[in-house]
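Let us practice reading a record.
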Amino acid sequence: MTRPLNFSFPSRRQFLVGSAATTLSAAAVALLAGHPTLAAAKGETHGAAASDAGTLNTALALEHEGINAYTLGAQSNLLEKPVLALAVKFQDDHKAHRDRLIKVIRTLGATPVQEKSLAEYAKDLEVDKLKSQTDVLNFAAGLEDEAVNAYLGILPAFNDRQLAHLIGQLAADETLHFTLLSNALGRPLPGPFSFGV
């Protein structure tokens, strides 16, 4: 059995916590709850809206990365059909995250961060090191683990706890992805308090 490659990536948690907003408004909560009209009526200040949008744009950048990481994994031709189907499902989840974040950011009056090219993600993520299905699974599990911890890391930054709801949903999805990938790798299930440390 070959030893899995260890890949190191910038800490998503540090990236997100460093740019997390510290003040949230009722308008932002209304946006995340799917009520843009109510949000507009609340009249959020420019500074708070810009701060909220900045935090959400950081999350959006990570979702762009996730989508492209799964594209690169699928294009590697290293995945067996059942594993490929799982990767496509996870990519669809990341696309749903992306779409929701874009909608909220636009409603805040901000411009969503743009996706980089696939070649840029390939270089940044060093996918040329992937040589087997196990490598791809370890790669994806590492990204999902970082995503969980990044999203959990920004939860305390929100003064209005209702705004943390969307980020909590994203963290839950990433936890599911990580757990299923770990299972596919034959790893034991994570224990209590495994994330957010």
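A brief commentary: The domain at 18-184 is CATH 1.20.1260.10 (Ferritin).
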